Structures are given as structure tokens and as C-alpha cells.
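Hi team,

Filling in the usual template for the complex we talked about on Friday. All components are listed, including any nucleic acid strands or ligand strings, so the model treats them as one assembly.

SUBMITTER: L.P.
PURPOSE: interface mapping
COMPONENTS: two
RESIDUES: 347
SEQUENCES:
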Amino acid sequence: MDIERRIIRNDISAPIEDRYLEDYLPGNVCECGSVRLEEADLVEFAREYDPQIMHASPELAKAGPFGGLIASGWQTLSVMTRLCCDHYISEKASRGLLGIEELRWRRPVRTGDLLWARIRVLQVSHDPWQSTGVLRSLMELLNQDGELVMTIVAAHRMSCRREAEQKRDGNHQAIE
Amino acid sequence: MEIIRQSSSLPQLADAANRYFEDYVPGSIHEYGAICVEESDLIGFGRCYAPYKCHTDAAKAAQGPHGGLVASEAQAAAIMMRLLVDNFLSTVASIASPGFDELRCYRSVRPGDVLSIRVTALKARRSVSKPDQGTVWDQVELLNQDREVVLSLTTIGMLRCRPKTSESNRP
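RESULT (copied from the run log):
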């Protein structure tokens, strides 16, 4: 797997190392890349998680309906997860994936495809009685020709900055 | 990842090489498993696809909100797929999947967890334009060793109908 950490467009002003729920504004777009999967990556993932011929066997896949090896859709989802970890969902604030409302695989991913993401903030809901909230995002994965490979509508639970800062100030006072 | 074969008292599907659209009867429930995940599986996947400390670094994860290593949700979903491929999908009739709906994450997967699936066939619709194929919607729940639901989703599968010539061979 060949990863090039590259930001094409990023409307979210806070850097990913210090980014909380409040920093995601509806309409914000983050375009980032890129991940390239080689044949060995496809086969390795498939043998472990999705050992169907079209994903796991380069030879037999040639005679199959896709005319060659294609990535498991679950590996494509995993690539999006990697791009989110590197560029979109801050590790500090992440409280996990709540769910995916809808995922569509629109085109097969083949050996050598260069994959990048276009992610749009759809909705930010903040529960005033909790220190967290929900970030809803539209995530599109595209290939080197700008063709859509996969679309996802996902919801992540995220910590709020206010709460994190209060906690930090509290710790400082305790230390003093 | 250790694959553990378990028997189920629920009705069994036809052999995977003789499994077609007609065999996925709405309302039917099947259970399969299990897979035991080890710490090294979590770390291996995490380093590649989800490099957060809660997935890759046991010592730092112990200090974090989960109190230890947990699997990325993408890995939990991939393990669910392995259980589907090994036990539920047809090896002759599967065409493709356009995606899935309503994935919900309820619990974390931790090292040593033994995971199985419960599949409920929800809906089956034969294609109007291609009457030799159809689409099946299944609710798949990933369960842990305490039979708690880790995640659930609705899968969508397109597959071929049983060929007319083999109709007389039906069990």
C-alpha cells in the first residue's frame, strides 16, 4: 500500500491534531489523498477477510465477470477509513463510528488505482447535556480519473472542544 | 485470526455450490461462526487502515477511553464479511453487491473476542428486466461470545436464480 499524505482542499480551519466537533461546519469540504493498492495488497486483504475468487485469485479472476482482480468492497471501505484517520476525523476527539446510513460501491477498484477522498460535512448535532455530539458526513472515494468509486453517509461521535478544554484546565488546577 | 467451526441448530442452506436466489427465503434465520481475533490481528489491520492508538498501541490504548485495544469498526465489518463468505454466500450465483444500508456500531471488538453472525433474510425481489436474477436484502448481526450485538447492517446482494435445467436436481 502506497500512501501519499496530500491535502487538495480543506475548509476545516483547525488542524487535525487539535480538531473537535465545533470545528466541523456544515458545508465544509476536505479533499485528501491518496492511497494506491498493489496486487499483493488486494490478495492479502482478500485472503483474510473476503476470499472470493475475484478478490483473492489474480489468475482465476481474469476469466471472471470483472476481467481481472478487483478489491473487496470492505477493503475499499478500509481505505476510506485510512484517509479519514489521516485527514478528517481527529484522533483526539474521535469517540468512534456510530454508523453508516448508506454505502454504495459504484465502480470496482483495481490494482494500481490511485484513490482519494472528497468529504463534506453534512450536519453537526450537539447535545447540550453531553460533552459529545454527532458529525454526519458524506464521503466520496474517487479514482485517478475522478470517477466515483464509493459513497458513504456516515455518523461519528466526537468530543467537544469546550469540554476538552475544561477538563484540561481542571487538570492544570489540580496540578497547581 | 482463528476460524472455529460451530454447528447450528437452525435450518441449513443448500450447499454453497448449489445455492441460488430462491434459497434465500425471507424470514429465515441462520447463524454461523466463529472467528477468534487476536491482538496481533487488531494491530496489523490498525497499522494499515486505522492508525489510531486505540487500534495499534496496547500500552497507550490502556490509558485511553476504551481501557484497552479495540478493533476498528471497518475491521469488525470485514470479519463479518469473512463469516458471510465462508458460510452464507453462494459460490455459483453471486453477481455483485451495490452496497449496504443502516450499519450500526453497538460494541467494541477486543482481543480474544469470538465473533459469529446471525443472518435474517429480510426481502427477496426478482428482477423485472432480468428475470434470471434477483436481489436479496439480509440483516446481518455480528455477535460476540456473550451473544451481544457488536454491529448490524442490511446487506444487499444480487444473484442468479436457479437454472431451469437443474430444477429436477433440487434437494
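MY TAKE: The first strand of chain B starts at residue 2 and ends at 3. The interface with chain A takes residues 1, 45, 48-53, 65, 72-75, 77-79, 81-82, 85-86, 89, 94-105, 108, 153 of chain B (CB under 8 Å).

Thanks, L.
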